[in-house]
Design goal:
This protein is α/β, with parallel strands linked by helices. The chain is built from 13 helices and 18 strands. The chain folds into three domains: about 10-250 and about 370-425, 3-Layer(bba) Sandwich (FAD/NAD(P)-binding domain); about 260-360, Succinate dehydrogenase/fumarate reductase flavoprotein, catalytic domain (Flavocytochrome C3, Chain A, domain 1, Alpha-Beta Complex), CATH 3.90.700.10; about 450-530, Up-down Bundle (Methane Monooxygenase Hydroxylase, Chain G, domain 1). Helix 12 packs antiparallel against helix 13 (about 500-520). The model is unreliable at about 1-10 (pLDDT under 50).
């Protein structure tokens, strides 16, 4: 939806600029609208307002809800265990302890989670890999869709929030755009807003703000197989890194163990939720034999990093293209009620989950690293905040516990909202920001240069920087990425801006950060496994870039 008072086509001013419209960005906007009714809030989204990683979340949102069986200590312990000793204990404590409250707010805003049939006053709490108790609130197998629906409806009730659809953020505005030489050791880098491409007019517009928040989601499209939608191109992290901000733990890319294997190919890959294994489904090889007992005592309910590596190893050892998820023994009616979309998707490919086992493969799913932020979402760049999957708060450590991501977005959105409500009056606009300079550029003559580079990038990352890595693979990836970088930067400086070119440029930056961070970590921990250093180091450190 376009602002009713969006008259000036080159300069837009707001008190707070939020880039991204998922659970983190929209819940932040809602909270700020309530606590700062006299402040103008602009939300930019590069597609439709409801298109985000949030929308595609299936399993649910984790929170300590049943005090009779669960408690904060259990949820904290599960999160720390999944994070493989690299979590920030304070971040974990913040998210777990503040979680039930923010989920309660979401329910008050209109979110409908499934309830128990026998007792409709109680929520039907699911369980997923790595959780010691049933604590996952869900809406069938489309929880993210329900949350995004709720937020889209709620945000319309606030006149001081304006959502600009089809606006692609190109660059964060800092002193660099005023002609200063900014490096990674420059003190007090400041953010003044962002330049964004109006995809409908093709013009670059300037958005000035007292405070800017990146809520730009994940990076899944850097790999050939991913459960992320096409918009997940790491824009926020890439823009932030180019602006000389600090990022961390980019080597920890979570591969979901069970994406539906479709030989015809599709983008994104269809996700078979972790909740299906929590419901009792069992992983098996193509000849019908269970295998998870060889890798972890929790079997198919082990954390994602363990399950994904186990599947990868079985596939490579046996030379198979996939493994199976066996649901045939499960209660048919309960399964169809809980996972209607999964059941129908499989049926559309000729797979009846009650007669055939479901073929599955690991696929890129979640970025555990990102923009380094503190407990109030503040980044290393002044007046620039970040929230959601584009951040590294310390919650996930080396591996995210299932269904903690939506929770993290909600908790940190509230913390940023509280901080800005107390401080926005002390913050100011920066005057004299120049318009975007497109002089000396021409329209691209061959789109094939962009599309082919994108294909090469995905192949490089999938083959060399995937679930299992090595020094040789990382070196080969680094060499090839540098060539892609040079070619793409040449295109960027000589042709007019397009979303496709910007996304390619951002993904190359993301690929570089993942590869560089992976080469720095001389051990195997969580989601980072290298054949050259298969053991953990005794001293645990974050990887800063």
């Amino acid at each position: 939806m376009l602002s009713p008072y969006h008259k000036e086509k080159t300069l837009n001013k707001s008190d707070i600029l939020i880039i991204g419209s998922g659970v983190a960005g929209f819940s932040l906007a809602i909270r700020l609208a309530k606590s700062c009714p006299n402040e103008k809030i602009i939300v930019l989204t590069k597609d439709k307002e409801d298109e985000s990683n949030t929308k595609y979340a299936q399993g649910g949102i984790a929170a300590v809800w049943d005090a009779d069986t669960d408690n904060f200590e259990k949820h904290i312990a599960d999160t720390l265990d999944a994070g493989d000793d690299l979590c920030s204990e304070s971040a974990v404590s913040i998210v777990v302890k503040e979680g039930p409250e923010v989920v309660g707010d979401l329910i008050d805003w209109g979110a409908k989670f499934d309830r128990e049939k026998a007792n409709p006053t109680e929520y039907d709490l699911g369980r997923e890999g790595g959780h010691s108790e049933n604590r996952i609130l869900h809406y069938k197998d489309i929880t993210g869709w329900e949350i995004e629906r709720t937020l889209c409806e709620k945000i319309k009730s606030f006149p001081n929030v304006v959502v600009y659809e089809h606006y692609y953020a190109v660059d964060i505005i800092t002193q660099h755009h005023l002609g200063y030489n900014i490096t990674r050791v420059t003190p007090d880098i400041e953010c003044y807003g962002a330049y964004a491409l109006n995809k409908q007019s093709g013009k670059i517009e300037t958005f000035l703000a007292k405070a800017t928040v990146l809520a730009t989601g994940g990076t899944g499209q850097v790999y050939k197989n991913t459960t992320n939608p096409s918009i997940a191109t790491g824009d926020g992290i890439a823009m932030f890194y180019r602006a000389k901000g600090r990022v961390s733990n980019m080597e920890f890319v979570q591969f979901h163990p069970t994406a539906l294997y479709n030989p015809a190919g599709e983008n994104p890959d269809f996700l078979i939720s972790e909740a299906v294994r929590g419901f009792g489904a069992i992983l098996k090889t193509k000849d019908g034999k269970e295998f998870m007992h060889k890798y972890d005592k929790r079997l198919s309910l082990a954390p994602r990093d363990i399950v994904a590596r186990a599947i990868d190893n079985e596939m490579k050892t046996r030379g198979d293209d996939y493994v199976y998820l066996d649901c045939r023994h499960l209660d048919h009616e309960a399964f169809k009620n809980h996972f209607p979309n999964i059941y129908e998707k499989c049926k559309s490919l000729g797979i009846d989950a009650f007669e055939h086992m479901i073929p599955v493969v690991p696929a890129c799913h979640y970025m555990c690293g990102g923009i380094t932020v503190d407990e109030y979402g503040k980044s290393s760049i002044l007046n620039l905040f970040a929230v959601g999957e584009c951040t590294c708060t310390g919650l996930h450590g080396a591996n995210r516990l299932a269904s903690n991501s939506l929770l993290e977005g909600l908790v940190y959105a509230r913390r940023i909202a509280n901080y800005l409500a107390q401080n926005i009056q002390k913050m100011h606009y920066k005057e004299g920001i120049p318009k975007w300079n497109a002089s000396g550029t021409t329209d691209p003559k061959e789109m094939v240069l962009i599309t082919q580079s994108w294909k090469e990038l995905k192949e490089i990352m999938s083959n060399y920087v995937g679930i299992v890595r090595s020094n040789v693979r990382l070196k080969r990836a680094s060499d090839r990425l540098y060539l892609l970088y040079q070619e793409t930067e040449a295109l960027y400086t000589t042709t007019t801006i397009s979303p496709q070119l910007c996304e390619l440029r951002n993904l190359i930056t993301i690929a570089y950060l993942i590869t560089k961070a992976a080469s720095f970590r001389k051990e195997s921990r969580g989601l980072h496994f290298t054949t050259d250093y298969p053991d953990k180091m005794p001293f645990i450190e974050n990887t800063y870039l």
